């Protein structure tokens, strides 16, 4: 009954299987909105392939680029544990943990003054329970609070909640696969000092040729001596993006123990994700979750 459908989402693990249903659907229902998950860079570089004259796909989801975009959004708001952008980045949903000493601890939402009430608190996560806040609700220390904020009020909101907003200066990436290399390239011509650590010497050689300002280091990201030698304690972010998620967890914990400001680990196993904050890893990124979020944002733009 595709003729009566509104949208087709093709999200299997195979790019080709995702593209063929879009082609079939184009002929069966020309008004259908088509969303496809595509990972192959070769396809993505052929933009005409998705044009109305060919596959006519309305929205392409690339998990790796979505993950890179999410990491960059988190780096723009260093004090946040979650950043979701809407309206081309003009509005952000920011998640952060309420620390001890915050002026909001122990206060009812209805007690906020006129200036504070301009802050829209969308949700509170407390002990793995999601609360949709009302006026009588009280913010507690340790709550994960989600705030909706316009870019123009971002700094003011961060000051209200005592969120650190120092400019990002140093980032270390471990793993130069597709995601790690893409992140390094995205940060290459910024003011941020970036180092990338990769075991494979051939990959390091290729990266050194393509990057202008990023320092490429051939080494093992789990080597404590190497991390100390590269002054990991001075890094604002350590981003572990190797293909092995257990290695990413180990690297993140090691970096945290050596004094890194924040750690981001690529983790795909669903069973691992809820445990990450418990063991001390600040932020988890996942190709699957990034793809799901991108699809949902396209399906549910709302008002």
Can you summarize this structure?
The chain is built from 10 helices and 14 strands. It is α/β, with parallel strands linked by helices. The mean pLDDT is 87.
Top keywords for this entry?
alpha/beta, six-stranded parallel sheet, about 300 residues, about 30% helix, single chain
Q: Your description of this structure?
A:
The protein is α/β, with parallel strands linked by helices and 303 residues long. The chain is 32% helix and 22% strand. The protein contains 10 helices and 14 strands. The strands form 3 sheets. The protein has a 6-stranded parallel sheet, sandwiched between helices. The protein has a 5-stranded antiparallel sheet with strand order 4-5-8-6-7. Strands 1-2-3 form a 3-stranded parallel sheet, with helices on both faces. Helix 3 crosses helix 5 and helix 3 crosses helix 10. The longest helix has 14 residues. The protein is globular. The protein starts with 6 loop residues before the first strand and ends with a helix. The mean pLDDT is 87.
Topology of helices and strands:
Layout: E1 7-10, H1 15-28, E2 33-37, H2 41-45, E3 59-61, H3 63-76, E4 82-86, E5 91-97, E6 120-126, E7 129-131, E8 144-150, H4 154-160, E9 170-174, H5 178-187, E10 193-198, H6 201-210, E11 215-218, H7 224-229, E12 237-240, H8 245-257, E13 262-266, H9 276-279, E14 283-285, H10 287-299
Parallel strand pairs: 1-2, 2-3, 9-10, 9-12, 10-11, 12-13, 13-14
Antiparallel strand pairs: 4-5, 5-8, 6-7, 6-8
Helix pairs in contact: 3-5, 3-10
């Amino acid at each position: 009954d595709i003729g009566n459908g509104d949208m087709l989402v093709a999200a299997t693990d195979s790019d080709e299987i995702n593209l063929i249903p879009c082609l079939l659907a184009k002929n069966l229902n020309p008004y259908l909105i088509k969303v496809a998950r595509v990972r192959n860079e070769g396809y993505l570089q052929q933009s005409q392939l998705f044009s109305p004259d060919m596959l006519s796909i309305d929205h392409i989801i690339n998990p790796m680029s979505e993950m890179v975009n999410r990491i960059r959004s988190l780096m723009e708001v260093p004090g946040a544990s979650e950043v979701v952008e809407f309206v081309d980045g003009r509005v952000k949903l920011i998640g952060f943990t309420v620390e001890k000493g915050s002026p909001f601890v122990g206060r009812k939402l209805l007690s906020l003054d006129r200036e504070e009430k301009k802050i829209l608190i969308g949700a509170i996560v407390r002990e793995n329970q999601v609360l949709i806040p009302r006026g009588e609700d009280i913010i507690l220390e340790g709550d994960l609070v989600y705030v909706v904020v316009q870019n123009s009020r971002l700094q003011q909101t961060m000051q209200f909640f005592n969120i650190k907003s120092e400019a990002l200066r140093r980032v270390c990436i471990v793993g130069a696969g597709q995601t790690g290399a893409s992140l390094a390239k995205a940060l290459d011509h910024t003011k941020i000092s970036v180092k990338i650590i990769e075991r494979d010497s051939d990959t390091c050689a290729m990266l050194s040729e393509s990057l202008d300002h990023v320092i490429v280091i051939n080494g093992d990201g789990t080597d404590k001596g190497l991390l100390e030698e590269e002054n990991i304690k001075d890094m604002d972010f350590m981003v572990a993006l190797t293909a092995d998620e257990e290695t990413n967890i180990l690297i993140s914990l090691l970096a945290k123990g050596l004094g890194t400001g924040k750690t981001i680990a690529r983790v795909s196993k669903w069973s691992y994700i809820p445990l990450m904050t418990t063991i001390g890893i600040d932020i988890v990124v996942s190709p699957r979750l990034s793809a799901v979020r991108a699809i949902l944002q396209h399906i549910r733009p709302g008002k």
